[in-house]
């Protein structure tokens, strides 16, 4: 199901809205990010375009496997090393996946009548980043101090990063996966990163995307035991749409590990497409506590 973002802002919106109002931060994709200080850029400011985001979410009611892949480029400012962070509800296992996982997901979806053409992204052929990420899993008392250990960030970002982390911690999202990437003016596809963690609800972070510039398309493939009836937070909820039932064993054509997450012979697949301005992504996606749709 496709959703166009024309979402109202509320007084009760997350602290990140305040953070974004006072700082011009390079936050993009499903991660928040801060540009790194260098000799040539002692106070770096960059606007990041992130026109395509892809995610696969596998959730069995107790554990989630979140796989993220993005395209990104600098549209204003200089090439940047950027330290990224993503909030998570529990300590994850993480790893960089092969870029071919995206191709296999598209082929698997097509075999089951799902149009996942948006999963191919928008970067030109050959513009796939193949250098490995170094991912640090932290439960920091001060996110800004932790980010500085990955790369020196401009002092003006420290207060905002701390406020953002405190807000997430207050909502029970106290773990952060942190990595560092290089972004320039050429649109590039970055390889998928997977995070596997305990969770009693589906979770997908959107709110840290809100300082990206321009339009985006987000493709999310949800794979659950029987389907999700609603996704959203802070008064903004999306209908994940119709369910396609597939044999659990078919997931092995994408990854031999995927079927191990489920005990059922059949799982439900939903394809959510969100289109709109990155600046509107001021909420995260959670399934409701009951989680599952009836089928």
Defining key terms:
295 residues; mainly beta; 4-stranded antiparallel β-sheet; 4 helices; 16 strands
What can you see in these coordinates?
- The protein is globular.
- The protein has helices at 15-22, 100-111, 143-150, 158-170; strands at 2-4, 32-35, 47-59, 63-76, 80-88, 93-96, 136-138, 175-183, 188-198, 203-204, 215-224, 231-233, 236-238, 244-247, 266-277, 285-287.
- The longest helix is centred in the middle third of the chain and has 13 residues, at 158-170.
- The protein is mainly β and 295 residues long.
- The two termini are 18 Å apart.
- Strand 3 and strand 4 form a beta hairpin.
- The strands form three sheets. Strands 1, 3, 4, 6, 9, 11, 14 and 15 form an eight-stranded mixed sheet that branches.
Portion of residues in helices?
A: 10-25%
The total beta strand count reads 16
- Tell me the number of helical segments per DSSP (H or I, 4 or more residues long): 4
* Average pLDDT figure: 74
The radius of gyration over CA amounts to: 18 Å
Class per helix and strand makeup:
mainly beta
Order of helices and strands: EHEEEEEHEHHEEEEEEEEE
Uncertain spans, ≥5 residues at pLDDT below 50?
A: 5-29, 290-295
Main β-sheet: number of strands, strand sense, barrel status? Answer: 8 strands, mixed
Which shape, going by the Cα principal axes? Answer: globular
Query: What is the CA-CA span between the terminal residues?
Result: 18 Å
Proportion in β-strands = 35-45%
